[in-house]
Design a protein that fits this description.
661 residues, mainly alpha, Serine Threonine Protein Phosphatase 5, Tetratricopeptide repeat, 32 helices, 85% helix, elongated, disordered C terminus, G-protein-signaling modulator 2, coiled coil, TPR-like_helical_dom_sf, TPR_rpt
């Protein structure tokens, strides 16, 4: 005999078990529990304000989505929503709207993702009216995560990031009142991400640590491992590689200990990626390679090709950072072969990673084939934004091959693709690419128009990084076309933006670019008859910037960056006629390049030494150093440096002829 009270208790327990299985991504178990719960609810009188069949449907559809059947889950959710609307089932409507929002939030592209916010918002309002705090909190958290997703695609992330924080804080308050510790931790995580998007690293890290503490207390080891990986990423963003490594290694160790389902293996790969990033940030290349090879053995033992492909791609990055180009190229090839059998999107992404290595190996045709193959895969997948990004990369390759017509066509196709995908940021970057093509072809006016179009779009959208990139492009254009003053003004504006953004590598590059632009501006000021005090102020400003960059690179402990910064410092000192001081800087830089066995850098510096001797009219030493630099350029396979040295030698030959006459 069926007893309703017992049946309700059984149904509630089974639904709860289905939800717990979903949390652990045990999708087959979740489906089984949901089916059993539905059978129990089907024998009970319908209560429009209590859990029932529609809750079981949500659990089913969530399991389908997590198993990769997102399109089917979305279709069935919408059909169920229509049925609820027809039956005037308000609670059922809210459940299905929440389900739709959860489904479209991940791995369905920006077109479907747009449905998340309106559906989650409507669900939250209904649950509030029904006084269902638990489901209202879930809806608010989905709203917050949808705004975070939107912020990553927006040109100005501020508005969506702040909205995400506000909604997640509302969810946090509800979960604390419900004493739901797991959901409290998830809300803290979401708030942490929002603060990171706002560049407020300290708050992001503190909230992340609070979430970790909660997961430790409730024994949620998978969530704890996930959050430790997040903490490591936040430390990397704050340029704290040691703290990042500690958190990332704990995360990797925990994921390794968890039962090795497919989803856990995926997170193990992600944790390994952060471990590798931390080692590379600390310049410990061998430790990064050792960590990758250690995990690779586990992935091979499990026969997980997607994990192996990801690890091979990490190995490519580590080997490239170490300077082992050939080994990096081999790792890139292996990653593509592994991905072919398991994941087309991954294959396309790895093809794009392989292309630059082929280009560096002077195999530009194979590099082009690699990018074109990726373009076609993205086209087949309907991933218009990714296809447009790949076309921009193809435009850059054509430009490097002096194929200007093809380069411009690819840049224009990329712009149209981004416009079709509604990706304004991508459109702006495509205009930048088109401008570079025009610039290389000597079409100065067309290049300036394209760069200004990109600048206007970035300013309108509040994309400060894009604005800085556009200003830098304009500065280089003005510099190459002999407009030194305009070049310096654009570079100054870009530098100001980079100081606000606070990313060290971007700031370093901006300092060097601005220093060089100011030197060119000084020459133009001098030609225009400017006051000597004004010129001196400009050149001293250039020297300050070059030396600030040198100081930054010393603190970063990056030999190649330091040498490049010292090269710029020498340029400024030569412009100031401070030849002895320039030679002192060069002696230190040459010694460092020899110590680190950086032949290309040593060749460039030797060319700089020749330039100083030219300025001092020491033709004998200038010729000796120029010849030595040419030999180094040939040995290092650096034709660009060879061209520069040839120009310097011709200059010296002409000078010697004029002296003989």
């Amino acid at each position: 005999m069926f007893v309703p009270s017992v049946g309700l208790a059984t149904a509630s327990r089974l639904l709860r078990e289905a939800e717990e299985a979903l949390q652990d991504e045990q999708n087959d178990s979740a489906l089984a529990y949901a089916d059993k719960a539905a059978a129990c609810y089907g024998r009970l009188p319908k209560d429009p304000e209590s859990p029932g069949l529609v809750d079981c449907q949500r659990a089913r559809f969530q399991a389908m989505a997590q198993m990769g059947e997102r399109k089917r889950a979305l279709k069935l959710s919408k059909e169920e929503l229509d049925a609820c609307l027809t039956a005037n089932d308000t609670r059922g409507e809210a459940i299905m709207r929440l389900c739709i929002a959860e489904t479209v939030l991940e791995k369905m592209g920006s077109k479907h993702r747009k449905e998340a916010i309106p559906n989650a918002t409507k669900a939250a309002h209904i649950f509030r009216d029904l006084e269902d705090d638990r489901l209202e909190a879930m809806s608010l958290l989905v709203m917050a995560n949808a705004h975070l997703k939107r912020s990553t695609a927006a040109m100005d992330a501020t508005k969506d990031s702040q909205l995400a924080i506000d909604f997640a804080k509302d969810a946090l308050d509800l979960n604390r009142s419900l004493q739901d510790r797991r959901q409290e931790g998830l809300a803290l995580h979401t708030i942490s991400v929002g603060y990171l998007h706002l560049q407020e690293f300290r708050q992001a890290i503190q909230l992340c640590k609070q979430a970790i503490k909660i997961y430790q207390e409730i024994g949620a080891r998978k969530l704890e491992a996930f959050e430790r990986r997040v903490l490591a990423r936040w430390h990397l963003r704050k340029d704290e590689p040691d703290q990042a490594l500690e958190a990332a290694e704990k995360s990797l160790h925990m994921f390794r200990e968890l039962e090795q389902s497919r989803s856990v293996t995926g997170w193990q790969v992600a944790a390994l990626g952060v471990v590798v990033e931390a080692y590379l940030a600390g310049k410990d290349f061998d430790a990064a390679i050792e960590a990758i090879n250690s995990e690779m053995k586990l992935f091979e033992a499990r026969g997980c090709k997607s994990s192996q492909a990801s690890a091979q791609d990490m190995l490519r990055e580590a080997l490239l950072a170490k300077g082992d180009f050939e080994a990096a190229k081999e790792a890139a090839e292996r990653s593509v072969v592994l991905a072919k059998d398991v994941d087309k999107r991954m294959e396309a992404e790895l093809l794009l990673q392989r292309a630059p290595l082929l280009g560096l190996a002077a195999d530009a045709n194979k590099a082009e084939e690699s990018i074109r193959e990726a373009v076609e895969i993205f086209k087949d997948l309907g991933a218009e934004k990714d296809r447009a990004n790949a076309l921009t990369m193809l435009a850059e390759l054509h430009l490097a091959k002096n194929e200007d017509v093809d380069a411009l066509k690819c840049a224009q196709d990329a712009e149209q693709g981004h416009r079709k995908a509604g990706n304004t940021r991508g459109q702006a970057m495509a205009y930048l690419s088109a401008g570079e093509v025009h610039q290389c072809c000597g079409r100065i006016q067309e290049a300036e128009t394209a760069f200004n179009e990109s600048l206007a779009m970035c300013r309108e959208g509040g994309d400060r990084k894009g604005e800085a990139d556009s200003l830098t492009a304009l500065s280089k254009l003005y510099g190459e076309s002999g407009q030194g003053i305009k070049a310096a003004e654009a570079a100054d504006s870009a530098l100001l933006l980079h100081r606000e953004l606070g990313r060290k590598q971007w700031l370093l590059e901006a300092l060097l670019s601005t220093a060089r632009s100011k030197v060119a501006a000084c020459k133009e000021h001098e030609e225009n008859g400017a006051e000597s005090a004004e010129i001196e102020k400009e050149v001293l400003s250039a020297l300050d910037m070059a030396r600030e960059a040198v100081g930054m690179s010393r603190r970063m402990n990056d030999a190649q960056s330091l040498i490049f910064c010292q090269h710029t410092e020498v340029e400024v000192l030569v412009a100031m006629n401070q030849f002895d001081e320039a030679m002192d800087v060069l002696k230190e830089a040459v010694a460092l390049s020899q110590e680190q066995q950086l032949l290309r850098e040593e060749g460039r510096l030797t060319s700089d030494v020749a330039q100083v001797y030219i300025c001092q009219k020491n033709w004998k030493m200038a010729t000796h150093c120029a010849n030595k630099a040419m030999e180094m350029a040939e040995a290092a396979g650096n034709p660009a440096l060879g061209t520069v040295v040839v120009q310097k030698r011709r200059k010296m030959q002409q000078r010697c002829i004029s002296l003989q006459v």
